Amino acid sequence: MSFEPTFEASRFDNLMRISSSQAIVEARLKPVNGTAIARVLSVSSFCSVSPSETFLHESRYSGRVNFKVIYACSEGKNHALDYNADFSDKVTSEMITTDTLPLFSASIIDTDIVSVDEREIKLASVVLVNLDAVQRQSIDILTHGGEGVYTHEDKFNFSRLCAETKEEFTISDNTEFVGNVSMLGHESKIILASTRSQTDSCILEGKIVSDIFFEDEEGQISQKTHITNFTHEAGAIGASDNATMLANLVIKESRMSLESDSEKSALIMEFEVSSVIKAFEEQSISHVSDVFSVSHELVAETKTLDLRSLKFRTLIADRVDGQVTLDKNSALADTICAISGQTLNITSTRINANRIDFEGLASCNVVYFSQDTGTKNSVSVELPFSFSANAQVVESNEILVKGHVVGVQTKIRRGNEIDIKADIEIEVDVIEKETRSVITALKLGVERVIPSSAFSIHIARNGETLWEVAKSLGTTPELVLTQNPKLTLPLNGGERVIAYRHLK
Predict the structure, then answer these.
(1) Among 233, 260, 341, 425, which residue has the least CB neighbours within 10 Å?
(2) What is the pTM of this model?
(3) For 117-200, where are the E strands, in sequence order?
(4) What pLDDT digit, counting tens, does each position of 324-372 carry?
């Protein structure tokens, strides 16, 4: 017997979430023009992270939180502060290896005022950092058993990273205001709606939602929300037309300049966007899943593969609502001026029968004007939510999510109660999971004792396959069917299956 099994070197690139952790980032903001802080009207923050170094069981990252504050000074005038706080940290996990390709993302969970006086505002943001990664695994898989070895073959699909790229690009837009206004600040978020692959490139489609805060000549604060739709083609050498794309987009810097005359004001907007893109294509492999030999025992080593493949991206939209009651010591609300610090924190997800269940918290600051006191005031709002949305998912799938508040509507009731409705959108990347067992080593064992009887009989068990019957009888599935022409598949159990040794 010439025993020469054949193995094929195979590489599997599995996309998975490895870890989630939290970081606390603090900042001190001081007025630069010598004004005294009388009342903080709006506090918000935005963040971004990127990988730095990866070691065994450890991946490091660096990040930045952009803090934005609008406040009223002792003279009742409006002012804005903007500050960037850099931070760095690491994620530790037994799953991290030197072959791990990290993809970090971050979102703001909460931003609080730690302390405030007329000279300084101290803020703290809780940042949720997610480590998603491509886990690269290379193993040798049995594809041919060799002479005298009967094999049962199988086939499965898997995902392989075919392209990855980092790119920065600029998105420009403009909008107009009626009348002569001055800008206090802005908050912008980018939402990726869809990705589409082409040969050596990726098409990104989405929008940037900008909340722009300004004041008129009388010092009243107002807000305008502007949507900038975009389509961008990013280079991705190695990508094919049928690749599936994973992309993470972050606004690295946003610039807005206001050009005004007596009748109107034009706002020129420019966004510097940083993108990280990974392209996956589906491949298949035929392998030997089971073996036996009539003449010898075979010793096989097996390994279980946990395969994860990125399938598709979808964008889910919904609306959550609630109510906030002003504190009894707060001034009553007569006019809503602006909504700032709009964030969405998704606390849990669950897949259930072609649906995804979401739970979380939508947050914002409501800036309002009170006629009784003649002052601008603010109140923080938190709207817990729980809803279910249709999606082409099964319970074995995993999902990666990123949520946004894209718009808020308010209505004042009795001065101390405000009804709030928040429009939300959630980016969802769906990962398909599958477990496969493969043979990674095969050795020739002791010689079998060949039965001397003219035939052997096997009593089939319920659910037993034709291959299992043939393996038990020491023959091939083809001979089992030839020698038992009345055998009906699938087997029900109890059938007498005969293997003839000397059939004439």
Answers:
(1) 233
(2) 0.89
(3) 121-144, 149-178, 182-198
(4) 999 988 999 999 999 999 999 999 999 988 999 999 999 999 999 999 9
